[in-house]
Every structure is written in structure tokens, then in C-alpha cells.
């Protein structure tokens, strides 16, 4: 059964349906990429003592879980997909709150991360997320479940650029505040996206 979409973005030739087979393959690839990046980034985040890298690593883990949920509910009805979107939104909001707490702890302890490691890992993470974003672009205007996947990936790419800027800031100032600032920005992105997804999913539940 097809899912309604904007036919300018990814509908199968003239039929107005989402190509679920192709979308499922893209989600599986995205899941594998995000799981791999989580393992890589959590290790380097701990080594570099970077709140921004740790936040980004947990974001990769959350996205891997989101892609798994999306694969699970892909063939289900609109109500099941909307409820899955609500679950993902709660996980995004939880991530955002955790990052705020981690940044506050870093501010209290005055830790200074390793700028070079931050920059290198941030660049690799950006390439990974741009690849996933390019694969998911066609479904960015789908239902709340598809939109939540797109928003997660978009936020990740923005967060990776911010991590690299933070690395430059840490290198230039010799202090940890750029790292903490970026971690707080990533938390704000997560909380904003969570609110958008919740609003969209609630509308779908009401209409259903």
C-alpha cells in the first residue's frame, strides 16, 4: 500500500505512491552507517574529552534506533506510524535534555577537549550524514514518520558542521566553551525537531 507524498519528490512514475522497497533499503543503509558512526564517535569523544562529540555520538545511536523503528512500522497503517513518530520524538527530547546536563557539567569542571580529534571526527561524521541525507531527500515531505527520519538526519549534518566550528574555537581560544556552546545548540535542535514531529504526529492521529 502506498503512502501519500509530494509527487515532485520521490513518487513512483505517475502513480503517487512511495516505493517502499527502495525506502526500506535506504533506511537499512542509514541504520548501518549511524550504528558504525556511534561506535567510532563515542570512542573518540571519550578520548578527546569533548561534550559535543559525545552528544553527536549519542545522536547517531538515537538515529540508528529511529531507522530501526521506521523499518518496523513502514508497512503498517498511519496510526502505527504516527505513534512510532511520537516515540522517536520523546527519544529526541530526552537526548536534548541529556546534552544540556552534560554541557552544564563541562562548564562546572572547566574541561578542555582535544581540538584536532574533534575536527577530524566531525568531518567524518559530516560526510556520513550528508550521504544519508542525500539518500533520504526524496522522502522529506512524507508522513510524520518519514519526516522525523529526515529531520534527524538534517539536524545531524548541521550538528557536524557545528562540531568542526567548535574544534576551531577550542584550538583558537584554548578553552572549552566553544565545545559546550555547540553541545547546547545541538540540544536545541533536538528539542525543536521533537516538537515539530509531535505536532505532525498528533494531527495524523486526529485525522485518523
From TrEMBL:
Principal place of residence: membrane
The Cation efflux protein transmembrane domain, residue ranges: 27-206
InterPro entries in the cross-refs: Cation_efflux_TM (IPR058533), Cation_efflux_TMD_sf (IPR027469), CDF/SLC30A (IPR050681)
Topology class, membrane: Multi-pass membrane protein
Molecular function terms from GO: zinc ion transmembrane transporter activity
One Pfam family named in its UniProt record: Cation_efflux
Domain of life: Bacteria
GO (cellular component) term, any one: plasma membrane
Keyword Cytoplasm recorded: no
Subcellular location: Membrane
Gene3D superfamilies: Cation efflux protein transmembrane domain (1.20.1510.10)
Transmembrane spans: 26-44, 64-82, 89-108, 120-137, 157-174
The keyword Transport is assigned to this record: yes
Annotated protein name in UniProt: Cation transporter
Source organism of the structure: Thiothrix fructosivorans
Amino acid at each position: 500500500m502506498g503512502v501519500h507524498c509530494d509527487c515532485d519528490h520521490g513518487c513512483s512514475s505517475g502513480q503517487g505512491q512511495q516505493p517502499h522497497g527502495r525506502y526500506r533499503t535506504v533506511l537499512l543503509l542509514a541504520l548501518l552507517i549511524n550504528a558504525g558512526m556511534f561506535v567510532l564517535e563515542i570512542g573518540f569523544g571519550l578520548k578527546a574529552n569533548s561534550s559535543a562529540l559525545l552528544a553527536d555520538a549519542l545522536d547517531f545511536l538515537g538515529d540508528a534506533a529511529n531507522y530501526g523503528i521506521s523499518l518496523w512500522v513502514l508497512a503498517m497503517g498511519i496510526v502505527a506510524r504516527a505513534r512510532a513518530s511520537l516515540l522517536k520524538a520523546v527519544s529526541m527530547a530526552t537526548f536534548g535534555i541529556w546534552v544540556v546536563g552534560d554541557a552544564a557539567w563541562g562548564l562546572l569542571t572547566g574541561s578542555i577537549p582535544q581540538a584536532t580529534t574533534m575536527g577530524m571526527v566531525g568531518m567524518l561524521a559530516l560526510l556520513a550524514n550528508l550521504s544519508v541525507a542525500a539518500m533520504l531527500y526524496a522522502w522529506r515531505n512524507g508522513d510524520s514518520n518519514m519526516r522525523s527520519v529526515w529531520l534527524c538526519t538534517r539536524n545531524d549534518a548541521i550538528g557536524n558542521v557545528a562540531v568542526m566550528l567548535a574544534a576551531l574555537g577550542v584550538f583558537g581560544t584554548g578553552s572549552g566553551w566553544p565545545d559546550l556552546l555547540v553541545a547546547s545548540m545541538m540540544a536545541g535542535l533536538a528539542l525543536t525537531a521533537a516538537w515539530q514531529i509531535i505536532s505532525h504526529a498528533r494531527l495524523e492521529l486526529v485525522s485518523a
